Amino acid sequence: MHPRSGFTLVELLVAIAIFAVLSALGWKVFDYLIKVKDRNAEHEINLGQLQEAYQQVLRDTVQTVPLTANVNSDIQPALVLQNSTFSFSKTGVIDPLQQGISPDERVEYQYRADEKKVYRLKYRYLNRSGRDQPESSVLLKDVDQFEVVVLNPNENTTWPESAENLTDHVQKQKLPKGIKIKLKVRDVEYEWIFSLLNTDYLEQRQNN
Question: Could you count the other beta carbons within 10 Å of the beta carbon of residue 104?
Fold first, then answer.
């Protein structure tokens, strides 16, 4: 008579326990991979937003020009950095239909700490009334800190450099050598430095 073959109860329980452990480990590995994938996707989105914001600031600074703005008969300097307000004149607007649109406009960066957002405000004309409303867009989100300093060549938190320059029209057209933007986004700190290249813009315009 042949002995009966098969698993004993102990062997079956051991096999079930091993399977349970392997299943738990497999789930943890799978869950970890999903979280890593989600973090990478979020990082790519955040990096894309930073790159877009950097490129926008780069385009603005390359097109910055030493032109004053007339706001309701108040002549504003070509670039203003006062009390966290940063605004400047820029050129480069294209008028393909020849509608007489000015190539120059006024741009302002505005940080709203309560919203943790940096806004880009654009006025279509340098000469305007105080009632004109700007075109507003979000430059960057989730911003914990945003600060602009001018480089001339030393860092300065205000521009024009002195109150006397606010009464001199020639001095109002003066631009610093560059700007530095210090920002913290999602607990990561960045420093962006941009040169202002159009300091000879008025001379070029006169020659043309």
Answer: 19
